[in-house]
Each structure stands twice: as C-alpha cells, then as structure tokens.
UniProtKB/TrEMBL annotation:
Domain F-box associated beta-propeller type: 4-235
Top-level taxon in the UniProt lineage: Eukaryota
NCBIfam families per the UniProt record, alphabetical: F_box_assoc_1 (TIGR01640)
Record-linked InterPro entries: F-box-assoc_dom_typ3, F-box-assoc_interact_dom
Name of the protein described by the UniProt record: F-box domain-containing protein
Signal peptide: none
Species whose genome carries this gene: Heracleum sosnowskyi
Length: 249
C-alpha cells in the first residue's frame, strides 16, 4: 500500500502492516510516473517489492526492497524499455510480469519480466504481431494488462472507439516462464466486444470469467463460455484489483 510517499506491506490474514524504509530514489518534480511490483521469491524464501520510476527527461530508475534485508537497493535498468507507463500485474514462479507502454494513445507496448531471485530485469516478450500492426484511426483508447490463465501467462488487450464499443482480446503465452532469452508464442483464446467498458482487470481462474468495469464504475463478469455478462452488485473507484493468497508470514 502506498500513501503520502510511504509504502506499507499489509497482510489481510494477520491484519498486520509494516512500514518500509525511505526510498533510495527520492521524490522530485521530474518524476513522471512510478509503479510497484510485489512478489515472493521461492529460492530465498523472501517477499520483495520493486519500484520503477519514469522521469520526464526520458530515463528510468528502479530499486528493490526485500523483507529479509529491509533496505532499498537501486537496480540496473539498462535492459529496460524507455517507457512512460509500467504496470506490474502478475507474479508467477519467481518472476514478476509487467507491461510497458509509451502512452494510452499508442500501441507501442510490450511485456517484460523481473527475476525476483537474481533481482534483474530479464527479457522482453514481444506482443502478438497484429497488436503492434493495428492502424485503425478510429481507435481513441488502447491498453493492455497481464493476467494468469490457469498455470500460464496471458495478456488482455482492449481498445475503444468513439462509439464506446470496447474490443477485447485474450491471448495466452505458450511456454511461459521460459529461461532467459527464449521467446514464447501467442495464441488467441477469445475476442469479443462490450459497450461502455473502460477498464479490464483480468481473468478469474476457476470461473472462466473476465472482470471489467464501465464508465460509471460498475463491475461486470463476462463469461468466456456462455458469452453472457453478469453485473457484480458493488461499485468501486479503485484503479487496480489484486489476487490475494492467504499467508501467515
């Protein structure tokens, strides 16, 4: 959790929180955006937090904190794409998977991994070719998110036109979690159009549903099998929803 330039680790199971130390990368007016990634490293039995900061001048810095060391350490970022938006969405098998993009109006985007054990940004995974080549001038909004699809990685791309029709594609990454330098291939799992949707949160394992939100902050479940949409009886204004796995640590 982040508030007033302070970061906390919170465990809903134990109802305990921990304030992390002051960052190595200090707050400044030159910061354009920043994002956090959180995951478990099974090799060192350690929970780790990664912070990536993008600057107006066109460069990126990153740092990491582990619960065992309880200090921030700056990371090497030469292998990272220079982008204005980075989002950590999934942790799987000791890797954080994050999306990067150069803005909401561009399809200059991709997927990148962070090795929690080696503490390095590992390799880039190109998006499906037709995502990068789309040139529809009527599209006024484009975004993507990473999600778990059973035991693999998937990417959901979604874009809207002036009529507020949102086209959503679900792609699975075959042979995800490959060793560094080996690229996987993409398979299109589903493609559909919903009206008035501006946020896609991800795929819900066990239910075959995709969770989405409309412009009025209503939540809906779209079932990939039945092609039916069900309204969730709550409203939220939150920007992100996270998968929670109970732990007493």
């Amino acid at each position: 959790m982040y508030q007033n330039n302070e970061t906390y680790l919170w465990n809903p199971a134990t109802k305990q929180s921990k304030l992390l130390p002051v960052y190595t990368i200090r707050q400044s007016d030159d910061i354009y955006s920043f994002s956090f990634g959180f995951g478990f490293d099974p090799m060192s039995n350690d929970f780790k937090v990664v912070k990536v900061v993008a600057f107006h001048r066109g460069f990126i810095r990153a740092e990491i904190n582990s619960t065992n060391r309880n200090v921030w350490r700056e990371l090497e970022t030469n292998a990272m794409k220079i982008s204005m938006y980075i989002s950590f969405d999934v942790c799987l098998n000791g890797y954080l998977y994050c999306t990067w993009s150069c803005g909401l109006m561009t399809r200059s985007c991709g997927l990148m991994t962070f090795d929690l054990n080696k503490e390095v940004f590992d390799y880039d995974i190109d998006y499906p070719a037709n995502v990068q080549k789309t040139t529809d001038t009527e599209i006024n909004y484009f975004e993507s998110c990473i999600t778990k699809l059973k035991d693999s990685i998937a990417v959901i791309t979604f874009y809207s036109n002036d009529a507020y029709d949102t086209t959503i594609h679900l792609w699975s990454l075959d042979d995800a979690c490959l060793p560094p330098g080996i690229k996987g291939s993409w398979s299109l799992i589903s493609s559909f159009v919903l009206y008035g949707i501006n946020t896609v949160y991800g795929y819900l394992n066990g239910s075959d549903n995709i969770l989405v939100k409309d412009y009025n902050h209503n939540l809906y479940l779209y079932n990939l099998g039945s092609k039916e949409t069900e309204k969730v009886p709550i409203k939220i204004h939150s920007h992100e929803i996270f998968e929670y796995k109970e732990s007493m640590v």
